[in-house]
Amino acid sequence: MTHYVVALTGGIASGKSAVERRFEALGVRAYDADAAARAVVEPGSEALAEVVRVFGATALDGEGRLDRAAMRQRVFDDPGARTTLEGILHPRIRTWLRDAAAADTGPYCILSIPLLVENRAHYAWVDRILVVDAAEDVRVARLVRRDGIDEALAQKMIAAQASREARLAIADDVVVNEGDEASLDGQVRALHLRYVGLSR
């Protein structure tokens, strides 16, 4: 297993991907829970079969893949459905991430876990938590622009996750990502040097 595992988290549209890309540009491997979530529901997978058993064939698109947009809408409208879907996917996502960290050969690796606060107990094995932070109005604007949704749905998606305060409370380190690229670059470079040092 890699020497050191840093869990990267932040609310939806906080800019986790931008931070991930900067670490990767410095030669650090980043393993993303969203990528894991896609991998575990590939056609033919146990997870996809279980989703179909629970939610029906409407969970699939025309190509037999998980209809992510339809399921996203469904789980945000029904907290019980969200809990059920998370119960199917999250254990498999955790296994995928742990296996990725175990196979990593760098001095440290990044695990990008959007719902870390909600699932903190399952990730007690990570060494450090890095939170990407941005004000709610910045995140709403990003969601509207990125996903083509209205502000009401964007706010609902943000409200469905842990609060900003809850994320900051578990942070060992915080990156502020509100649009200043040079600042973001500098913050990530400084953290990279810190993590290399901590991994020794």
Automatic annotation (TrEMBL):
Pathway assignment reads: Cofactor biosynthesis; coenzyme A biosynthesis; CoA from (R)-pantothenate: step 5/5
Q: Which UniProt keywords apply?
A: ATP-binding, Coenzyme A biosynthesis, Cytoplasm, Kinase, Nucleotide-binding, Transferase
- What's this protein's name? Dephospho-CoA kinase
Output the Gene Ontology terms for molecular function. Answer: ATP binding; dephospho-CoA kinase activity
Annotated Gene3D superfamilies: P-loop containing nucleotide triphosphate hydrolases
Q: Which organism is it from?
A: Luteibacter yeojuensis
- Primary location class: cytoplasm
Q: What does the organism's lineage look like at the top?
A: Bacteria, Pseudomonadati, Pseudomonadota, Gammaproteobacteria, Lysobacterales
Q: What class of enzyme is it?
A: transferase
UniProt subcellular location: Cytoplasm
Identify the residues that bind ATP. Answer: A13, S14, G15, K16, S17, A18
Instruction: Please give a single GO biological process term from the UniProt record.
Output: coenzyme A biosynthetic process
GO CC annotations, alphabetized:
cytoplasm
Source organism, top-level taxon: Bacteria
Which gene specifies this protein's sequence?
Answer: coaE
Keyword Nucleus assigned to the entry: answer is no
Described purpose of this protein according to its UniProt entry: Catalyzes the phosphorylation of the 3'-hydroxyl group of dephosphocoenzyme A to form coenzyme A.
